[in-house]
TrEMBL record, chain A:
This is Queuine tRNA-ribosyltransferase accessory subunit 2. It is found in: Cytoplasm. GO terms for cellular component: cytoplasm. SUPFAM superfamilies: tRNA-guanine transglycosylase. Its cofactor is Zn(2+). It comes from Apostasia shenzhenica. The keyword Glycosyltransferase applies. The keyword Glycosyltransferase applies. Binds 1 zinc ion per subunit.
TrEMBL record, chain B:
NCBIfam families: tgt_general (TIGR00449). It comes from the Eukaryota. It comes from Apostasia shenzhenica. Residues 15-283 form the tRNA-guanine(15) transglycosylase-like domain. GO terms for biological process: tRNA modification. The keyword Zinc applies. The lineage of its organism: Eukaryota, Viridiplantae, Streptophyta, Embryophyta, Tracheophyta. Keywords: Glycosyltransferase, Transferase, Zinc. This is Queuine tRNA-ribosyltransferase. Its EC number is 2.4.2.29.
Length: 409, 314
């Protein structure tokens, strides 16, 4: 892996554009970038042939959770098949592995102990020790991977935060020692919960290991946006600027913008998965800098960024999800059809929604990079958040928290 | 066995059918069932059914019929058959686009040869663009099943397509084609995919089976579909029955299997080697020669010699 920061924002923002060279053969990707969520290696609904139709500048980056493979195929079978790229038939894609996701592998801090990290999975709580984890890492052959972390929610005690840092650092040393490729693709995990002191200690210690990149864990676990800002700044102050940073748990557009502003390079797309599952489509305009007012023309059943395709208003709506959207779904199908598919419980509804939502969020990231390059990232954030606020004020009386994944978080 | 029909240049689209709905209430006026949209009772008359299908614009549209389970006999079956005949006239009268859309009548009558005979003759009199054989694949025994198909295909005009509704398994399709049927529809390839079963020339492959966990071969090494080119049984083993992607990938393979089977069947007729096709199909499906008796009986009527596929003793 190689990483170069190609453009940094001046002033208060630490937002940056970087070039990431990863994969085999290596692909050149621009950051900030979105890692697509997967279940056992493939996206939940987008089949491999449709994955190729996604309009993105390079091959998409996929997030892979080794925990999904605890029940098989066994590491020896995966190795024998030739690793994850081969098994998934995604040879030209860049695969980034980290244990946690927000779908089938949730960190479970109560179950963790000094031996390993615990995850809540569909087959129950599972303890993953560094040696198990590294067995999987060496068989999966992901392009980049995070060390095993003890991620804790925001409400644990200072003592627990301290323990999480101690364990995570020890496991990082174990992972480095057990890595057969000499640690060249490892992202060192940084934890510490909501303790500024522990976050700083962890970051400083991880930096000492001279890892090529960083995985920032323990976010999106109950901390407030304000709390997060201080923690992210503390961590970033301790990290060298020239190395890439991946985060997990900052999913909503506002959270992504906060993370980008703090200097994060790689994000997860769990948000897209949850929207898709709920029957929502992303519809916010992407020409954020050019537009006069983002919120105005979004008077439609969801919130300012999404629409709820289950709503009866779409029953006879023969327009695509977004006019002029180049995705497979918008090129071929209408809102009315997706509404119908949801009504009759057809999986195709989710396939079509995941295609559109994924492409839309990928393009949102494209716009973020563009804004940074134009030195307009602050304006971009301001206009995006203003648009949302305008909409929320005008539509507040009817807003139902269950209807809006943005508000219910 | 029939030589191919020139029906359409493009893929024809078929319309809906109200089939064996458990909650349906059937009167002379029409079928009352629960709307899938809001659960409210909805009356579907023959006229309304045709009106909707005219709007949908399918190339082939189906008459509304009174379907009862084939296992039912007696006055209810007789009533359903006669009602189907009365309804076809209402469907024909309501059909506003006969030049653009082909209305198929549906032969009913359960497994009673007399009722089937009355129904098929009644429909042929109406000179429809095509005919469906309905009410099958509903739990009747296989010998009754193929005999109904054979009786209907023999009575239907040779120059019109014959569509066996709700069929079927690969073996059923091969047998019905030998008996002169042309078209089929079935949820089997996709439904069985959701249960983790793949269709292969030898029959079926249960991907949930423990042996699949370490099997690095594709589902079917002779299959050219995207899934067989890309994925191992070992990987699919962990996806099927649990993840939507497992259902998708297996459905993809199963549908490509069925399409290839139909294509091969079609070409064998065009090239005048259909008997050899049937023999080859049966030999792979029943390597021990234990071809079911009903298949042997049906093939005898179809005039296809399959003795080479059957073991001498069984
Ligand atoms: Zn779209
Ligand atoms: Zn295949």
């Amino acid at each position: 892996m190689r990483f170069v920061v190609t453009k940094s924002c001046g002033g208060s923002s630490r937002a940056r554009v970087g070039s990431l060279l990863a994969g085999n053969p290596p692909s050149l990707l621009e950051t900030p970038a979105l890692l697509l969520s997967t279940k056992k290696g493939l996206p939940a609904f987008i089949s491999p042939d449709l994955l190729a139709t996604l309009d993105s500048p390079g091959p998409p980056l996929l997030h892979i959770s080794p925990v999904h493979f605890l029940d098989g195929p066994s590491p020896s079978i995966i190795s024998s098949i030739g690793g994850l790229h081969q098994m998934l038939a995604l040879q030209s894609f860049v695969l980034v592995a980290s244990p946690r996701d927000s779908i089938e592998s949730l960190p479970e801090s109560i179950g963790a102990n000094k031996l390993g990290a615990a995850f809540e999975t569909p087959s129950g709580r599972r303890l993953v020790k560094p040696s198990d984890y590294m067995d999987m890492i060496s068989s999966l052959k992901a392009d980049l991977w995070a060390s095993l972390a003890d991620e804790v929610p925001a409400w644990v005690s200072e003592k627990r935060n301290r323990a999480s840092v101690d364990r995570t650092l020890r496991w990082l040393d174990d992972c480095i020692a057990l890595d057969k490729t000499g640690g060249e693709n490892i992202f060192g995990a940084i934890v510490g919960g909501t303790s500024v002191k522990e976050r700083q200690r962890c970051a400083t210690e991880v930096v000492k290991r001279n890892v090529p990149g960083f995985y920032i864990g323990g976010f999106g676990l109950g901390e407030s946006m304000e709390e997060r800002l201080g923690l992210l700044n503390t961590i970033m102050d301790s990290l060298p600027v020239e190395k890439p940073r991946q985060i997990f748990g900052l999913a909503l557009p506002e959270e992504v913008l906060q993370g980008v502003a703090a200097g994060i390079d790689l994000f997860d797309s769990t948000y897209v998965y949850h929207l898709t599952l709920g029957g929502f489509a992303l519809v916010f305009p992407l020409d954020i800098i050019e537009s006069e007012n983002l919120g105005v023309h979004l008077n439609n059943g969801g919130d300012a960024t999404t629409i709820n395709l289950r709503a009866t208003v779409y029953r006879k709506d023969t327009s695509p999800l977004i006019n002029n959207c180049s995705c497979y779904t918008c090129q071929n199908h209408t809102r009315a059809y997706i509404n119908h598919l949801l009504t009759v419980h057809e999986m195709l509804a989710h396939i079509l929604l995941e295609v559109h939502n994924t492409q839309h969020y990928l393009q949102f990231f494209g716009k973020i990079r563009e804004a940074i390059k134009l030195d307009k990232f602050d304006l971009f954030c301001k206009k995006f958040i203003e648009g949302r606020r305008t909409h929320l004020i005008t539509s507040l009386p009817s807003s139902d928290p269950d209807e809006s994944p943005l508000l219910s978080r | 066995m029939k030589v191919h029909l020139e029906v359409h240049d493009i893929h024809p689209v078929l319309s809906f059918q109200v089939s064996l709905l458990d909650l349906a209430d059937i009167t002379e006026e029409g079928v009352t069932f629960q709307s899938p949209a809001d659960g409210k009772p909805m009356l579907l008359t023959p006229e309304e059914s045709i009106r909707i299908q005219n709007k949908i614009g399918a190339d082939i549209i189906m008459a509304l019929d009174d379907v009862v389970r084939t296992t039912i006999t007696g006055p209810r079956m007789e009533e359903a058959m006669y009602r189907t005949l009365r309804w076809i006239d209402r469907c024909i009268a309501a059909h506003e686009r006969p030049d653009a859309q082909n209305l198929f009548g549906i032969v009913q009558g359960g497994v009673d040869p007399i009722l089937r005979d009355i129904c098929v003759r009644g429909l042929v009199e109406r000179n429809l663009p095509g005919y469906a054989i309905g009410g099958l694949a509903g739990g009747e025994d296989k010998d009754s099943f193929w005999r109904v198909v054979a009786q209907c295909t023999a009575a239907l005009p040779a120059d019109k397509p014959r569509y066996v509704m709700g069929v079927g398994y690969p073996l059923d399709i091969v047998v019905c084609s030998a008996l002169g049927a042309d078209m089929y529809d079935c949820v089997y390839p996709t439904r069985t995919a959701r249960f983790g079963t793949a269709l292969i020339p030898e029959g079926v492959l249960k991907l949930k089976h423990n042996a699949m966990a370490s099997d690095e071969r594709p589902i079917d090494s002779t299959c050219t579909c995207m899934v067989c080119k890309k994925y191992t049984r070992a990987y699919l083993h962990y996806l099927v029955t649990k993840d939507p992607m497992g259902s998708q990938l297996l459905s993809y393979h199963n549908l490509s299997y069925m399409m290839r089977l139909s294509q091969n069947l079609h070409m064998s007729i065009v090239e005048g080697r259909f008997p050899q096709f049937v023999q080859g199909f049966l030999r792979i499906q029943f390597p021990k020669g234990d071809v079911p008796k009903w298949v042997c009986n049906a093939m005898e009527v179809a005039g296809i010699d399959i003795s080479s596929c059957c073991s001498p003793i069984h």
